[in-house]
Amino acid sequence: MSPTVDDLRNEIRQAVGRYERVESTAFTKEALAAICDAVDYDIGTNGLPSKPQMRAGILWKIGALEDDDPERAERPLRKAELESVASALRDE
């Protein structure tokens, strides 16, 4: 049986030192920032960028997007994208 979206999110959270969530929720800005750090996407030091910017950066760093254009990551990560992120974090 393949993991659910919630399972994948929690696996990713744990891989970057965040806590598991019982309820189904998308990543917070802080969790996205931790994932950015884990995949070596530089978010700078002047506050956190937008969620779409961080999602695009994560997907770009793992090879799922050609660039880090936030317009290509306006919505929460889909299951296939979560699987790719989880796989990239497992490989590190």
Q: So what's the overall shape?
A: globular
State the end-to-end CA separation.
24 Å
Tally the helices.
4
| SSE pattern | HHHH
Describe this structure in words.
With 92 residues, this protein is mainly alpha-helical. The chain has one domain (5-91). 49% of the residues lie in helices and 0% in strands. It has four helices and no strands. Helix 1 (5-15) packs parallel to helix 4. Residues 72-82 have a biased composition (Basic and acidic residues). Residues 69-92 are annotated as: Disordered.
Gist of the model:
The protein has four helices and no strands. By secondary structure, the chain is mainly α.
Sum up the structure in keywords.
92 residues, mainly alpha, globular
Task: Describe the secondary structure blueprint for this structure.
Elements: H1 5-15, H2 29-38, H3 51-61, H4 79-91
